[in-house]
Amino acid sequence: MKRTKIAAALLCLSMPLVAQALEFQAVGNGALGVGGAGVARTIGAMSPYWNPAGLAFAEKTVSVSLTAGVGLEPGKKLAQDLDDLSKTYKDWDDSVNSNGFNNSIPQTTNLVASVNNISNSDNLRVTADSALGIQIKHFGTGVFGTFEGGASPNITPINPSSISNANDLKTALSASTVSPRGILLIEVPISYGYDLDLKEYGHLGLGITGKYLHGEVTSATSSIYNSSDNSTISSNDLTKQLSKNRNSKASVGIDLGVLWKPEKMVPVPMSVGLVGKNLNAPAFSTNSGDKIKVDPQIRAGLAISPLTWLDLVADLDVIQNTTVVPGAKSQQFGGGAEFKPFSSLKLRLGGYTDFAQSTGALTGGLSVGIPWVFLDIDGAYGLGRVKFDNKSYPSEAKLQFSMNFAF
To answer: Is the pTM here over 0.90, yes or no?
Structure first.
């Protein structure tokens, strides 16, 4: 199945509006275009998601932002592995039915090799987001939805000498499994930011968010061989399983943030931010008895404006974030520059790297419009390459749109 179909299927799953936990996704207001940095930016309606302390320095009385995005990380070729296995199994089964097992030795060898070449460190990860953010003076609210899905294999290597007939091979295939998992997290926050005057040390924004959480989670483990239709699992089957066996649960979350503007201490406008999200570590149980825990996320950010038409920003995950893929971590460092040549146009360039995954991407975006109504378009393009459906694709790809209103 094509990569775009995977992304579309999982985005649709998230739209009824983000294992252990979630990645810190770049939601709205041009954050993706500058390397996923937003903790130290005063971004109005998106502050309840990024850093509630930003509300202390809200530039507009009212701002509203509507955003949606989707991303795909093929993740060490699991999707390609499974699709290759599915094709190899069909070739082997056709040969056995036509020529008999003893006359299908080359196909048997290829099938065993196809299974043994799958690494248990391979995975597939997909993200999606949609949000409506609202800022009124120093208060913020809205609906923020993030989805993270993934899959990882548990492969039992096949010893060719133990295979003497077709049933032996099918039994050996049944010993290996793939586990897809997913969580859709919908947040409804109430946020407030307070500006604390530190005199000669500048201003310190203090922010707090209390939020209602609705989690939709799914988790399953399936054999790579399906005896009911005599086939092996494909990447298409993984997306279907992520939409099944969903379990819903409500919870609450707590975020805290600070944003320091040194002002008189430095010659140019600068902000330093720190936010802790989901500090109470809410958890959601799946129908299979698995528990997906949303671990705390701690991220620091820096924003500097050396020129009136130039902003430089950067963010760093202070601690590693766990993901829906067991054993897979995420710790991103990203940043970029936003150029403002005209009041009606902003251009963004940046990039990020994931220290835990040894992956990264280049990012870019633009904003067009008038000061009180403007559109953001941002994207990311992976630096590595992976094979999928016998074609080469970037190691990850993300796209996001935002419509923003400010008064």
So the answer is: no
